[in-house]
Design a protein that fits this description.
It is a single chain. The chain has 4 helices and no strands. By secondary structure, it is mostly helical. The chain is flat and about 115 Å long. Belongs to the thymosin beta family. It comes from Caerostris extrusa. GO terms for molecular function: actin monomer binding.
């Protein structure tokens, strides 16, 4: 596939657009010393040395993964090493489940009514007033 380039020619003086005379005069008399100073902020900063190094490391990892040869891998067998619970643990769990079922199915109709008796009653207002006046 060949690409052909055409030489672009510059426009001639007569082909250029005409600038109106008042604008030409204004541009010729422009005084740049009356302009205010402005600080230029670089919004697209170049990456730091560390950024470049990190990108190189990342690219080398990608290249390593893309170029990896699966034919060099060896076949292996997986061995399960999960530990199953022994008889004691199973028995404990069964006992726990029976206890939970007993609590969930508890029949409250067999309970007797009980009256609560205060063994350490709070002092009355009169007793508190008497103590304050004695102190």
């Amino acid at each position: 596939m060949g690409t052909s380039y055409q030489k672009m020619s510059s426009p001639t003086k007569t082909e250029l657009p005409k600038v109106p005379t008042p604008l030409k005069n204004e541009l010729a008399q422009f005084d740049s010393s009356k302009m205010k100073h402005a600080e230029t902020l670089e919004k697209n900063q170049l990456p730091s040395k560390d950024d470049v190094q990190q990108e190189k490391v990342h690219n080398s990892m990608l290249t390593g993964v893309e170029g990896f040869e699966r034919s060099k891998l060896k076949s292996t067998e997986t061995q399960e090493k999960g530990v199953l619970p022994n008889a004691d643990v199973i028995q404990q769990e069964k006992g726990h489940q029976k206890l939970v079922q007993g609590i969930e199915n508890f029949d409250t109709s067999n309970l007797k009514h009980a009256e609560t008796q205060e063994k350490n009653p709070l002092p009355t207002k009169e007793a508190i007033a008497l103590e304050k006046s004695a102190a």
